[in-house]
Write a structure and sequence with these properties.
It is built from 11 helices and 16 strands. With 380 residues, it is α+β, with helices and mostly antiparallel strands. It folds into 3 domains: 6-115, Translation, Eukaryotic Peptide Chain Release Factor Subunit 1, Chain A; 129-273, Nucleotidyltransferase, domain 5; 289-378, 60s Ribosomal Protein L30, Chain: A, CATH 3.30.1330. It has a 5-stranded mixed β-sheet with strand order 7-6-5-8-9, with helices on both faces. Strands 3-2-1-4 form a 4-stranded antiparallel β-sheet, covered by helices on one side. A 4-stranded mixed β-sheet has the order 10-16-11-15, sandwiched between helices. The protein is globular and about 70 Å long.
Length: 380
């Protein structure tokens, strides 16, 4: 299994070619209902096979094409580790699947490219963020969404301060003292004050963490929250080079907190940031209507997205609009009910916007800037 990231999303966008099969389904994590997972995927594969055959492929060809997914149906180990949603993507010479914290509606899509629109809420600026759980004994990077969290320990990230300093833990003396505000509870601050953990050594440890994180996060712009004692957080702010470090931290020793507990503490911190950015884009859209810099006309938005003009795109979750786009003429045409050779033009516009570095907000109908299922704010 691959971990879904923006790089993986770009790969899905680039690799898709006919026939591209996209399957989404909810999954159960525990209990007797777990047995329904394989049955549901088997039924969705049957639907995919029927569509392939009705599209002109022989049954034996369809079966051969679906073999990578079919193997998962029969794999007991595969079903033992699930989240609440599963997505699978298959085309000639390419196969990916992702266990995700989103309860997808069951769907099967066969098209010229992969259907990635159901994944977009995971990349909303109101969805994805990181928590860096940091102490002298342990370092964890939590990849978070609104609905779930995954604990990771990326390669290259120091396991603890001793690994960086290359010292033996035997005989070390650590003294803890409370912060100036008093107390030694979750908000207390621990000073690393022995002859090994000098301020310079702690800074060296934190610099190594920051360097590794930058190589992992690359050009990400999702918020990063530090979970740690006040002393360490203040030093980490000095060495940090990641542009989206959140000024508010989860104060306290994170070693005793689970990933789920840290995720719950982080949500109230990031939600105001997400809502502010999205609301600012919504306001700018409304202010720009009638100026040529905003539109809710999909036939206008699609060619603009293709040419990289869309800076912000709002799309309604679960909404589809079928039609065609000819890159030679730059013309998009919507069809009622869809025709052979059509594609979901909302999905197309979202893919093109992301590929050009724009932001896509996949929101419920009530979160749309107006009554249309798509709204774009143009760069120029």
């Amino acid at each position: 299994m691959n971990e879904l990231s923006k790089d993986e999303l770009r790969l899905l966008i680039e690799k898709g070619k006919a026939p591209s099969l996209s399957i989404y389904m909810p999954t159960h994590r525990a209990g007797a209902e777990v047995q329904q997972n394989a049955i549901r995927l088997k039924n969705l594969l049957k639907e995919a096979e029927e569509r392939l055959v009705s599209g002109g492929r022989r049954a034996v060809e369809a079966e051969k094409f679906l073999e990578p997914v079919q193997a998962l149906v029969k794999s007991s180990p595969f079903w033992r580790q699930q989240s609440i949603g599963l997505s699978l993507f298959l085309c000639p010479d390419f196969f990916r699947y992702y266990r995700l914290p989103v309860e997808f509606q069951p769907s099967v899509v066969l098209a010229e490219r992969f259907n990635v629109k159901p994944l977009l809420p995971l990349f909303n600026t109101e969805g994805r963020f990181y928590v860096l759980a940091l102490s002298q004994k342990d370092v964890r990077l939590l990849v978070c969404g609104r609905y779930g969290v995954k604990e990771t320990r990326p390669e290259g990230l120091p396991r603890n301060i001793d690994e960086v300093l290359k010292v033996d833990a035997v005989g070390k003396r650590l003294r803890s003292r409370s912060s100036s505000s008093g107390g030694t509870g979750p908000r207390g601050s621990t000073a690393w004050t022995d002859e090994v953990y000098t301020k310079e050594h702690v800074l060296r440890y934190l610099q190594q963490i920051d360097k590794t994180l930058r190589s992992i996060l690359k050009d990400e712009r999702d918020p990063l929250i530090v979970a740690g004692v006040e002393y360490v957080f203040s030093l980490y702010r000095e060495v940090n080079t990641y542009p989206c470090l959140v000024e508010t931290a989860i104060i306290g020793n994170p070693d005793q907190a689970s990933a789920e507990e840290l995720h719950a503490q982080a949500l109230p911190i990031v939600e105001p940031l997400f809502l502010k950015e999205q609301e600012e884009a919504r306001i700018r859209y409304r202010q720009s209507l009638g100026t040529g810099l905003a539109s809710n006309n999909l036939e206008e938005i699609v060619p603009a997205a293709h040419h990289g003009r869309v800076g912000y795109l709002f799309v309604e979750v679960g909404k589809e609009k079928w039609g065609t786009f000819d890159p030679r003429t730059g013309k998009a045409v919507l069809h009622n009910g869809g025709k052979k050779g059509d594609e979901d033009l909302i999905d197309f516009a979202a893919i093109q916007t992301l590929g050009a570095g724009g932001k896509v907000y996949a929101v419920p109908r009530g979160g749309m800037p107006d009554r249309e299922p798509v709204a774009a704010l143009f760069r120029y």
